UniProtKB/TrEMBL annotation:
<dbReference type="Pfam" id="PF01590">
    <property type="entry name" value="GAF"/>
</dbReference>
<keyword id="KW-0597">Phosphoprotein</keyword>
<feature type="domain" description="Histidine kinase">
    <location>
        <begin position="180"/>
        <end position="392"/>
    </location>
</feature>
<dbReference type="Pfam" id="PF02518">
    <property type="entry name" value="HATPase_c"/>
</dbReference>
<dbReference type="InterPro" id="IPR005467">
    <property type="entry name" value="His_kinase_dom"/>
</dbReference>
<dbReference type="InterPro" id="IPR004358">
    <property type="entry name" value="Sig_transdc_His_kin-like_C"/>
</dbReference>
<dbReference type="InterPro" id="IPR029016">
    <property type="entry name" value="GAF-like_dom_sf"/>
</dbReference>
<dbReference type="InterPro" id="IPR036097">
    <property type="entry name" value="HisK_dim/P_sf"/>
</dbReference>
<dbReference type="InterPro" id="IPR003594">
    <property type="entry name" value="HATPase_dom"/>
</dbReference>
<dbReference type="InterPro" id="IPR036890">
    <property type="entry name" value="HATPase_C_sf"/>
</dbReference>
<dbReference type="Pfam" id="PF00512">
    <property type="entry name" value="HisKA"/>
</dbReference>
<dbReference type="InterPro" id="IPR003018">
    <property type="entry name" value="GAF"/>
</dbReference>
<dbReference type="InterPro" id="IPR003661">
    <property type="entry name" value="HisK_dim/P_dom"/>
</dbReference>
<protein>
    <recommendedName>
        <fullName>histidine kinase</fullName>
        <ecNumber>2.7.13.3</ecNumber>
    </recommendedName>
</protein>
Length: 402
């Protein structure tokens, strides 16, 4: 039995999109603990987890299945959804919410394509949440089915090379699904942000203002995740990231704004700047700003904290050279080859750092501009360098779209 459970945990860990699925579930539901659990006749085992409330479970940890509501999901094959335990006649006196201290909860069955039961996609939070609405339940059901498809794909890949075709089809369906989901999330996110801005104008207590600011920051982070996913799908499915190219004379202002915003977001880090952008640069300034923002965030998150991050940018005659350098151990050549792949993270980096799309989007912006992007790492420093040559970029852009 233990060997079988270990194999199932390994199968979930082998699915590269699982961290992304958990992030998306947390963003859609507002739940701060989300996991995929293997549920057997007498066992409940965590296979993958996103924990922002310090619940304490990690992959491989188990619970007494009799204390969980996943046992009910297993026996009935039906989801369990609770918006607010204290107002739910069926569950307000149930032992499970008392044991684990939650007010909102959702659990959906994961069934393998051959009909055998695997476990649940579940989440909980100490605070109430609106989980029973049709959009949330439908999205969660799609995620459970997506996990099921991936489990089947991993099994087939171990049996035959022919499963590569299946994986390719599944990948395309996943990207289409993410594109639709990202598009549909934008409208409610915009409403949340607009509501937060309007409420800030009203007289509120200090406690209420604190809650409102946390809501606003969470919505902004969700919006950034959605934008990354939309850029990913455009890059993978639409022939590259779309650009609004023109001769931009104020690019220095766009770049200075990025540095100012990230200095505010990471006050514990030092950022040294050497930016001298003169004249016009034929580019999409918003996308160049996004490129610098992603590179600078990457340096602040992964670089040595006792070493300043250096941002340099120079433009003359329409040519642009821009680099971001951070201190820290050298990156191995094999790792550098993986950096610009979507959803890729180096071992030991948590899913909470993002979806793993930032550097992929950087590479797509550089490619769509017809520019070059290089990484050098050694002697205690890592540098990302973007170069755009006015006389060469048009030809490179045509080649990138070919």
């Amino acid at each position: 039995m233990q060997t079988e459970i270990a194999a199932d945990i390994a199968a979930i860990e082998a699915i590269s999109s699982v961290p992304t699925i958990l992030e998306a579930v947390a963003a859609i539901t507002g739940l701060r603990f989300v996991c995929i659990a293997r549920v057997g006749a007498d066992t409940w085992t965590t296979c993958a987890v996103l924990d922002r409330i310090g619940f304490g479970l990690k992959a491989g940890d188990g619970l007494d299945v009799a204390t969980t509501l996943c046992e009910q999901v297993r026996d009935t094959g039906c989801p369990v959804i609770i918006d607010n335990v204290s107002e739910d006649a069926r569950y307000r006196d149930h032992h499970t919410p008392r044991i684990y201290g939650f007010q909102s909860y959702i659990s959906l069955p994961i069934v393998r394509p051959d009909g055998s039961y695997f476990g649940t996609l579940c989440g909980l939070d100490p605070l109430p949440a609106d989980l029973s609405n049709t959009a949330t339940v439908s999205s969660m059901g799609l995620f459970a089915k997506l996990i099921s498809k991936h489990l089947d794909s991993e099994l087939k890949l171990t049996e035959s090379q022919s499963a590569l075709l299946y994986e390719r089809d599944t990948s395309e369906l996943r990207e289409q699904f993410i594109a639709v989901l990202g598009h549909d999330l934008r409208t409610p996110l915009s409403s949340i942000l607009l509501g937060a801005e309007l409420l800030k104008r009203e007289p509120l207590s200090a406690q209420a203002m604190g809650v409102l600011e946390r809501m606003r920051r969470s919505a902004l982070r969700m919006s950034a995740l959605v934008n990354d996913v939309m850029d990913f799908t455009r890059g993978r499915m639409g022939g590259g990231i779309a650009l609004g190219l023109h001769d931009e004379a104020g690019l220095q202002h766009w770049l200075d704004q990025v540095v100012a915003e990230l200095r505010g977001a990471y006050p514990e880090h030092r950022i040294e700047v050497d930016i001298d952008v003169a004249g016009k640069v034929y580019c999409d300034p918003g996308r160049i700003q996004q490129l610098l923002s992603n590179l600078l965030k990457n340096a602040l998150v992964h670089g040595a904290r006792d070493t300043p991050v250096l941002v340099r940018a120079f433009a003359r005659g329409g040519d642009l050279d821009m680099s971001v350098t951070n201190g820290g151990p050298a990156i191995a050549p094999a790792t550098i080859e993986q950096l610009f792949k979507p959803f890729w993270r180096a071992a030991g980096h948590a899913a909470s750092e993002g979806l793993g799309l930032g550097l992929f989007i950087v590479s797509e912006i550089a490619r769509s501009h017809g520019g070059t992007l290089e990484v050098t790492s050694g002697d205690g420093a890592t540098r990302f360098t973007f170069c755009l040559r006015a006389g060469e970029s048009a030809e490179r852009r045509r080649a990138a779209r070919a």
